[in-house]
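Researcher: Quick one. two chains, 942 residues in total.
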Amino acid sequence: MKRYERVAQTLAQRIEQGLYRTGDRLPSIRALCHEQGVSVSTAQAAYRRLEETGQAEARPRSGYYALTRTTPGVLPRVTRPAQRPLDVSQWDQVLELVRGAPAEDRMLMLGRGIPDLEAATLRPLQRLLATLYRGVDARGLNYDNLAGSRELQRQIARLMAASSCLLHPDDILITTGCQEALSLSLRTLTSPGDVVAVDSPSFYGTMQILKAQGLKALEIPTDPRTGISLEALELALEQWPIRAIQLTPTCNNPLGYTMPESRKRDLVALAQRFDVAIIEDDIYGDLAFTSPRPRTIKSFDGDGRVLLCSAFSKTLVPGLRVGWVAPGRYRDQVLHMKYVSTGASATLPQRAVAEFVAQGYYERHLREMIRQYRCHRDVMIAWVERHFPPGTGISDPQGGFLLWLELPGAVDCVRLNERLAVEHLHIAPGSLFSASGKYRHCLRLNYASPLTARVEAGVRRVGEMVSELLS
Amino acid sequence: MKRYERVAQTLAQRIEQGLYRTGDRLPSIRALCHEQGVSVSTAQAAYRRLEETGQAEARPRSGYYALTRTTPGVLPRVTRPAQRPLDVSQWDQVLELVRGAPAEDRMLMLGRGIPDLEAATLRPLQRLLATLYRGVDARGLNYDNLAGSRELQRQIARLMAASSCLLHPDDILITTGCQEALSLSLRTLTSPGDVVAVDSPSFYGTMQILKAQGLKALEIPTDPRTGISLEALELALEQWPIRAIQLTPTCNNPLGYTMPESRKRDLVALAQRFDVAIIEDDIYGDLAFTSPRPRTIKSFDGDGRVLLCSAFSKTLVPGLRVGWVAPGRYRDQVLHMKYVSTGASATLPQRAVAEFVAQGYYERHLREMIRQYRCHRDVMIAWVERHFPPGTGISDPQGGFLLWLELPGAVDCVRLNERLAVEHLHIAPGSLFSASGKYRHCLRLNYASPLTARVEAGVRRVGEMVSELLS
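Model:
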C-alpha cells in the first residue's frame, strides 16, 4: 500500500466511525502533513483518493469536507392522486417560479431547475460559441435544416448509444429546448379534451402544456423508489380513453428515482397492449449517478411508439435552448408541428454543442457534474435531516440535482413561499407538480450550485419556518 | 453647379432618354474621366450622386449599372380564391422548399425568403455575438426572462414608435422567430375547426399553422396594389363565424403591396364591428421603400385586438431566431402559450440584437438594405420583362425582396420546378401560398442577394422554360 493510500484509509475510517459527518470540515492539507508526517503532495493525493471514493468533497478556497452516503431516514410516501382526468390549474404559481423576478439577484432561488453554470468544464463551450460567431459565414446566419444540424443529430445518436438506445441521426429532430420537444409531441398525439396519463408528481412545464392544449391529466400514483405504478396505470388504461402516457422515468423531476429496467420494459409492453404512445422526458438522464447511464424506455421500444424528449439545458446550459426529440413512428407529423411552431432551430448554437460533444468536452463535463451533484445530494440530505422537523420525507435522488421533501403535517408551501419571499428565499411548492394543486405540503430544492454557507443558512431558515408553521 | 453634378446630370439624361436601360453597364470610371475630361474623384462623386437618386447601382468588382424605375407593364390580376372555408394542404411542397436540400449549395434557390446575409453592415452583429459569448457569465447562460430581454423589449418599442405605433416594452414578448409569434397568436385565439380569414395569396408558414391546428382558411380576394378586399372580407364576416383575420399588410409576402393607411384604418373598424381579432404579420415592414416606414394596422388599434407579429429574420438574419409579438389584450394568454411552447427564448442572441439596435447599427443596415433591394427590384422586374413571355403579370413591391409573377397561361409551376431541379434551379411555386393549391400558374422570386450574371442566367432559363411549357 502506498503512503497516500494509507493516509486516505485512516481518514476514511474516521469518517465511517462518525468522527466526521457529512459537511464537516476535514483537516487542512497543512494539518494533515503535520499529523501524519507526510509531504504536501502525499496529503493532496490522499484527499484526491477520498474524493474518488465519494468520502470527501473539495470546496474551492475552503478545503475538504467529509461526505458519507446519507440515505434519507424517511422517504416521501407513495403518492395518491385523484384517479380521474382533471383540468390543469396552477399557472399563476408556475409563472411566479419561471418568469424571472426583477429581484432575482437578491433572491436565493432554492427551487428552480437550473444546473451549475459556473463549472470550469463549461468554458470550452463559450470559447466554441465565440469562435463560431467571430468566423460565421452566410450559412451560419441562415435558417438551418428544418430537422436540425446534421452533425448534432449524429452526436446525439452516438451519445444515446451509450444507453443501448440505437437511433439513426434521421430519427432525431432538434428543438428549441426540451419544452418544445414535449409540446410538439403532445400536440402531435392529442386533440383538445383528450386524456393524458402522467406520473404524479410531474414536471409542471408538461402539465401546463396539457392546460394550454385543453387536455385532461390523469395522475397516476408513483413510488418514490420505483416510479409510476404500473398496476394503477393498467387500471387507468382499462377505464379511460388515454391518448398518451407522459413520464420522466430516469432521474425523475421532482422525485429523483430511476425506474428499474424491468419496469421500463413492462411499461412498453403495457403501452403496446393498449396501443398507446409514450412520451419519455429524459432531460436529466445523462446526469444519473451510475455508469453506464440507465437505459431509456425508448431503448425497449419495438414499434416506434415512444417519443423520447431531451435537451442540453440541464446537462450544459439552458440559455442556448438546444433540445431534441426522437419521435419514432410520429416523425413526419412532429416535423410538421416543429415547422409551424418555430421553423428551423437557431443555427450556431447547434454547431457549438455538436463540437462540444465531438471534442469530448461533454463527457468530461458530465463526469465532473455527476461527481459534484452526487456529493451535493448527500450534503443537502444531511442539511435537511439536521434543519427540518423530524418525520420530513426526503427523496433519494439517483441522479440530477433536485430534492423533494414531504413535510410531516399540513404546511401550505404556497403560503410558506410568501413568507420566505420577505427574507429573499424561494422554494418550488409541491402544488406546481400536480394538475389539481395536490402536494401543497411538499417542496422541491435544488442542490446544483456550490453549497455555500449562504445556501445552508437558507435551508436552515426554510426548515425553521416549516417548524414554526407546524407548531 | 459643381463639376461632378454636371457629369451626373449628363449621365442621368442619357438614362432618361433610354440610351441605357436598367441593368446596362454604364461607362467605367476610367472611360468617364476620359470622355468628360474630369478627375477620378469627380467621376466617382458623379456616380455616387446617381446612386443616391436611384439611377445607378454599383456592383462590387464590376462597375456601375443603369437603373430606371421600371414599373411592371402588366400587374397580376386581383385574386379570386374560393370564398368558403377550406382545409389547408400543400405541406409536401412547403417541406421541399424549407427543409434545406442536401444539394442546396449547387442549387440556385430563386424562391426562398432569405435576405442578403453577406452585407457588410451585418458585421457588427457577429462581432457583438462573439464578444458576448467570450465574456458570458452564468446569467447569460441561464434561462432569460420568460417575456424576453428587457433591453430588447425597449429597443423594439423605440423602433416601432417610428411608425406611430406606441408600445410599452411590457407589451412585447420575444419569440423564437416570427413563426412562433404567429403560431402562439393563432393558438391563443382559436380551437380546432375554427375559421380564419387570410389575405390570398398568403405566407405558406401561416397556412401550415392552420393545417396543424385543424383550422379552416377562408381566403379573401386581394388586389396586387391595395391588398385584401375589405368588401369581400365584410361579406365573409357576415357569412361565416370567423375567429381571426390573419394578414401581411405591409410589404406583403408574396405580393409586395402595402395597404394604404386609410384601408388599414377601415380594416380595424371592420374588425371592431364584427368583434374579431387581427393577426398582423409585419416581418417585412421595416424594409419598406418609403421613409418613414408605413404605419402598422396595430397603430390604429384602439382596443387591443391586433396581435402584431414580427422578427429580425428578414431585416437582419434568420439563423438567430429572434422574433416578437405585441399581443394587445391577449398578452397573458400568449405568454402562457409561449411558456408551454418553448419557454424563455435564447438569452444572448436577444442581447446581441438589442445592442445592435441601440448602437445604431440596425438603422444603418436598414438604410443600406433598402437602397439595395429597391435597386434590385427594378433590375429584377426588367429581367422578367425581358426574359418571360409577354403578358406575364409582375408585382410592384413597395418593400422587401420578393417578386410575384402570374404567368399568362396554364403553366403548372410545381411541374416547372421539377424540370428546373434538373438544372439546379428552384423557384417557389404559387400553390404554396393558397390553402387549396391555387396559383399554380404563379411563382415567387427573390432579389435580395447580389444580382450576378448567374442569377440573370437563372431567371432567363426559368423564363425560357415557361415559354416552352406555354407553347
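Chain A has 16 helices and 17 strands.
Researcher: Thanks, that's what I needed.
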